[in-house]
Write a structure and sequence with these properties.
CATH architecture of the largest domain: 3-Layer(aba) Sandwich
CATH superfamily of the largest domain: BRCT domain
Number of helices: 19
Number of domains: 4
Largest sheet: 5 strands, mixed
Number of strands: 14
Strand order of the largest sheet: 6-8-11-10-9
Radius of gyration: 28 Å
Structural class: alpha/beta
Bound molecules: cytidine-5'-triphosphate, manganese (II) ion
Length: 509
Amino acid sequence: MDPQQMAPSGPRKKRPRQVGASVASPPHDIKFQDLVLFILEKKMGTTRRTFLMELARRKGFRVENELSDSVTHIVAENNSGSEILEWLQVQNIKASSQLELLDVSWLIESMEAGKPVEMTGKHQLVVKTDCSGSHNPSFQKTPPLAVKKISQYACQRRTTLNNCNHMFTDAFEVLAENYEFRENEIFSVTFLRAASVLKSLPFTIISMKDTEGIPCLENKVKCIIEEIIEDGESSEVKAVLNDERYQSFKLFTSVFGVGLKTSEKWFRMGFRTLSKIRSDETLKFTRMQKAGFLYYEDLVSCVTRAEAEAVSVLVKEAVWAFLPDAFVTMTGGFRRGKQIGHDVDFLITSPGTTEAEEEQLLPKVINLWERKELLLYCDLVESTFEKSKLPSRKVDALDHFQKCFLILKLHHQLVDSGLSSREEGKTWKAIRVDLVMCPYEHRAFALLGWTGSRFERDLRRYATHERKMILDNHALYDKTKRIFLKAESEEEIFAHLGLDYIEPWERNA
Ligand code: CTP
Ligand code: MN
Ligand code: MN
């Protein structure tokens, strides 16, 4: 067993680096002086590692017993690039930009050939940065030091669901939420931006040095990072989590239809639990809040992907009954690859329909579900869309498309072919569903907007500040040329903005 691997290594303990470590097994002549190999034992096992090391040395390769500064190539088996990086980070070793991460197949082929074979993509272990299971070859194979400049805009970063910095981003999100509850928008945005940028990093921050060159990390933020690195937690976050106001707001806003204003009111009135609020006779609830309380348990338990797929079938069935040509696209978090969500979002659009047909679709769909007794709550918002209007300058403005916010009854038997049997009695689950109907020529903008996440905000910020353009869910306007830029797809919108295309699953900023 490699003693380096056996030694317990907390993130704070600095391991002395071995400079110019000994070359093992001198009896073998080294034929290839430029290569210094280290074979990773992780997932390979001691026996196989020893065997391969011995064999490689006999073939003239220089193989180190231990990882040292002189190593140029790490050879691994059954490990991904990110797993190796993670291992390096745990060892507290920062790989230099020259360090190559190679699959064992390269070593085996080289030994067969009697000389190092060319290192091609199939040998090189790149770090996985998306959740589609594919490897992104554009990603650098080297850890922190070699990372190229990170943009302050989320729309210039690829943010997948593989977040290596949960420790920090979870903390920032608590703080951001607390500031939001206290209506301190500036600090809230500070922490949200910090969380967003850390989510895009392909490595875990283990020391303050790693934060150098990363944008959006204000002093306030860095202090929290430092505390978490040193103590494993932040006292400020701990205090917020124990704060009565924070806890109450968190609880109250978990009810569908309850926002900051209502939470504030209930908190001031001295309420701390939902059951007290529910049973209070003097309180007046909106229709939305009544539904929120009625289906509370179902709505707080998140929507799974299987449930979302089942809802998708329901939506398509209903939409296609009236508009067979319509496109129905699941948007929101699920389109970004999330496995759970608080609701399921759909964008509906249809080529060659009249305005009247378009306007009638959602009411017809709602009516159909009502007749089938699937509609538990419905709020239909009529379109306020005027073609002549410029895109809104407000980054957070909602769009003008016709839409409905619903709660649907989803029968368990429709999910996973009814395989998962639930508790006796209730045979369905209440699910929040959002439907948006948009004119066909605006579909790319609507899709981009409704896919989210806050990524969207940054795209608008970027358009405004860097391109003198105005972007919203309907259109893109070039202020210099004074024209609307048309787009048939999201790719075209990115191209208009002069941005590299970012896939939906890379928009989890
Ligand atoms: N959106 C919007 N206009 C609204 C409501 C939402 O443009 N009136 C956009 C938001 O930018 C958001 C997306 O639609 O990114 C989906 O909204 P939401 O369902 O709230 O968020 P999700 O990202 O889907 O998160 P979750 O998985 O929790 O549902
Ligand atoms: Mn959603
Ligand atoms: Mn939604």
